[in-house]
Design goal:
The structure is a homodimer. By secondary structure, the first copy, chain A, is of the alpha+beta class. Chain A has 2 domains: about 160 residues, PurM-like, N-terminal domain (60s Ribosomal Protein L30, Chain: A), CATH 3.30.1330; about 170 residues, PurM-like C-terminal domain (Phosphoribosyl-aminoimidazole Synthetase, Chain A, domain 2), CATH 3.90.650. The first copy, chain A, is about 30% helix and about 25% strand. The first copy, chain A, is built from 8 helices and 14 strands. Chain A has a 7-stranded mixed beta sheet with strand order 9-11-8-12-10-13-14. Chain A is globular and about 65 Å long. Chain A starts with about 25 loop residues before the first helix and ends in a 13-residue tail after the last strand. The interface between A and B is large, with 98 and 99 residues. Strand 1 of chain A pairs antiparallel with strand 2 of chain B, so a sheet runs across the interface.
Amino acid sequence: MSNKHRRSPIDLNDGVVELAHGAGGSAMTMLISEIFYPAFNNDLLLQQNDQAIFNVDTGKLAFATDSFVVSPLFFPGGNIGSLAVNGTINDIALGGATPLYLSASFILEEGFPLKKLVIIAKTMGACAHAAGVKIITGDTKVVERGKADGVFITTTGIGVIRNQTVLSANQIMPGDCVILSGEIGDHGVAILSKRENLNFETNIISDQAALHELIQLILEVGGDHIRVMRDPTRGGLASALNELAEKSDVGFVINENKIPINSSVAAACEFLGLDPLYVANEGKLIAVVAPSAAADVLTAMRSHPLGYQAEIIGVAIEDSRFFVQMITRIGGRRIIDHLSGELLPRIC
Amino acid sequence: MSNKHRRSPIDLNDGVVELAHGAGGSAMTMLISEIFYPAFNNDLLLQQNDQAIFNVDTGKLAFATDSFVVSPLFFPGGNIGSLAVNGTINDIALGGATPLYLSASFILEEGFPLKKLVIIAKTMGACAHAAGVKIITGDTKVVERGKADGVFITTTGIGVIRNQTVLSANQIMPGDCVILSGEIGDHGVAILSKRENLNFETNIISDQAALHELIQLILEVGGDHIRVMRDPTRGGLASALNELAEKSDVGFVINENKIPINSSVAAACEFLGLDPLYVANEGKLIAVVAPSAAADVLTAMRSHPLGYQAEIIGVAIEDSRFFVQMITRIGGRRIIDHLSGELLPRIC
């Protein structure tokens, strides 16, 4: 009479995502318990309620979300899973918070190989573990073939804010220094090198990384002298600086000579007709710091593996037009404008 | 020299989503500031940082996420936006928490009409406002035409738990009563009535609703006698009961005569060859309650507009096989099994 145990097994090697895996029944339970629970393994997730419940030691929290639609899903230096975990960890940490928990929601295309989903899930679990963060709740939806592109992942993070420093995009003052943590453009170029319609060879790998430790170090050393931090992802360094300029009613002058860039990235950008200032990064940050603390913060950043190439690339100035200006290598000045249109779709 | 003000305006009437709207530059800023900020209008969102920061009055929190891929996007009784807000509010509230904040992340297909996006965003803002919840952070990605299906939305919620009652799927005991808040199947049938490949007429509208007030009422009246609550969404009442049975190592006996169902829904299900026990609901809940409190909880539920049709539909029993049995209208018994495959893709 019973068919409690009649559930079809799931073939993690040769199976593919089916519509039934999103239907709320036993196929979905199987998918979750065979792929996501082992990969994200932690006590809160394994309570298997529709919400995760936890206690935090302070009531001041940071909350951030990002959807990831990167194409291709696997690229030199990472995959959509590492990006989804590290990207949201970074957004939480950039608010001055210690990231604690993530949710992960998957939109899967019918026909997507389970083997690839397993790799993505394991990568997410490993990245979360490495960062001391737990993926404690989630969701899985499946759409018909041709209605999505393999896998889209949305991660949302919660962190607690224990330090007193208030970070905000609107408190930059003229004279503040802009510190960039390392070379720009690696992520964008690594993704483009794997796009089917492009054909170039490079040894560049994505810089995707969890920046929370570097951020904590910056806050410890800089304290209230840190005005704001940003990760220059979509739209690159240029977009991040323009956004900060407008929010703080200042301008910036940056020095092209000081902006770290790998020569292979520079060459690839030239080949592709891209300005590396607009190319996405996934493991870099800019910190805007009061001038009195800039040297100490720079030294501290350079002591960390994710900041060893840090440079003070420029300063904030009074400018009622909120321009970002760059002193070029040959000594001229040019305006670094907003990215006005599309540069690189689906870079993250 | 400047082109700070050269941004092309956004045409909310006749414009469509373009890849540039996801590129991290000024087109994206425009989309967010013209559509999402006015629709979700609140102080935390308008700080425009990459994360929202807030204080809560207790450190016991509930956290839940859901992606919404419903097709069609607009249906009788709601749209993907109302579903995305109310669905996550419900997941938070079902954990015994007061929902406070949501994040909203959008994956948009190139070419999607902005006019529709405006309606969806306004609906989300209105639903959040009605529930006393704020949408405080978000993300927007755009994928190429044919790589998504209009709009996918992922919402994640945070709530605070102020009451002492511990709700969990694993604490049901034999003898506990199962209370269902109202008629089943409305949401699923409303969606199906608008599917292009089906052709039937019905006056059924989705039951989608925010259940947090009803849930709070149940907790106030039932206190520690409330074991667990669930919303029978994907997979319907049958899947929710099976899941609870397995997590608590009990069986259930439910009474078909007691299960509220609208006659039009019953007729549509018969026409479509669907068992309404497996059809999705988006504004119903089941509460499993100790027998001593069941009558009071039922009375309280019936006093609320979202619970006026509530019924005690069955009881938990000892059963080492964890079966859900139903006494049918004609007095027989049948096993209500897990949904094993796909029933209705993209119902939420």
